[in-house]
Amino acid sequence: MDFDRAAFHAELDALPWASYTHAYGSAEDVPGALRALAGDDDAAAQEAQSELYGSILHQGSVYEASAHAVPFLARIAAAGIRTVDALLLIGGIAEGGADPDPGAASGSDPAGTAGVRESDEAACRRAVVAQLPLLLASVRHEDRAVRQAAAWAAGWTGTAGAALAVPALRDRAAVEADPLVRAELLTSLVELDPEGSAPAAAGAIGPDSPPELRLAAVTACADAGLPWTRGFHEAVLELLPLDPLAADRYDHSRGEPLHDISVTLLERDTEADREAVFALLDAALRSDDPEARTEAVWVAMTACELSRSAPARLAPALLAAAEADGPDDGSGALSALGRLGARGALAADLLAARAAGDGDPADRALEALVTVDPVRAASLLARDLERRPRAFQAASGGPGDALPVIPYAPELLGAVRRRLARCDRAAPPRSG
Prior knowledge:
This protein is mostly helical. The chain is built from 24 helices and six strands. It has helices at residues 5-13, 30-37, 42-55, 64-78, 83-96, 120-129, 132-138, 144-154, 158-173, 179-192, 194-202, 211-223, 230-239, 243-246, 257-266, 271-285, 290-306, 310-325, 333-339, 348-355, 359-372, 374-383, 389-395, 410-426; strands at residues 21-22, 25-26, 57-58, 61-62, 104-105, 116-117. The strands form three sheets. Strands 1-2 form a two-stranded antiparallel ribbon. Strands 3-4 form a two-stranded antiparallel ribbon. A two-stranded parallel sheet has the order 5-6. A hairpin with a 2-residue loop joins strand 3 (57-58) and strand 4. Helix 12 runs parallel beside helix 15 and helix 15 runs parallel beside helix 17 (290-306).
């Protein structure tokens, strides 16, 4: 498509941008950023893109100016100028938007059915829906990155865009070969039409599908509310670690798949779904792959925060992960056990053995032991107080703690007194 820069600039100048608002107030700077994004200077365009993300799509929030920018972003994309960047901005504005209220007033219907002014979020979603012909044409683009960005963006057009978007996305999904684009298409279809697209998602979890698509299918099935099956469980374990499979996705809301799947299931708040999460994390924590264990440790801690039954269920697997890590606590499992307090008591022997070693790993192990078994930690801390700053801080009562967790121990009190005496001797004399 030919790009008439003069007409583009004239139409930008015709709008009262100074009267529109964005994250930082007046949007008078937006036309300059859009000109730069459409320009020939790559460095200026990159800076303009960053400015637009900060102003019209600030941390996912949208504003009055965001909706007015959408048609210009669409023209940039249609002209083949930084198409992926423009499509991702459009999609982000749609994601930050909301489905229009049929009773609210819009630019095309100033009165509205109920005379209620349309929100900025609804105006943004409406503006993106108006560009669906461009988005749906772009899912057939020869460039894989363009197809992927367009598929992701179309998925955020909500109920207002579903009638037009779903058939087109399904048609493309039937012939698409690239795994990442297929994953994005499937995710968007389930977002727009959960009931109608759930069977396709369930059918894509098997080993015949590429890993990226399998992961998207499992996540989509969880999002769609389908019962968690043994097939889903096995697919996740076969795919671990999951984070690399999501690294190149534009669906950033699913950037940490094991965490997202687990939280989705826990929020269903049923015994079956809780047990499904615990079984999944138990197996992941026992994985031979250090990266898989690392993913699972932080998800396990989230589960322990969300479910009172999680600590008892997951502590043995955390201990197994800590044993597999060795002294360096690569996955963080040993530290995680320390955060469980007395509920991590089964790790006391391992923590004590590690705390008897040298260096930072020993200090971290003793720090955890302070909360798991404070009586046992006291003698170890007394012996090596000078070399255990982290453990000493924990014993002194961490941030927010009302009192130290270490009980009275004469040998520890003596070590503290000796340390304080050395500090006094080393301190410079006070001036008169």
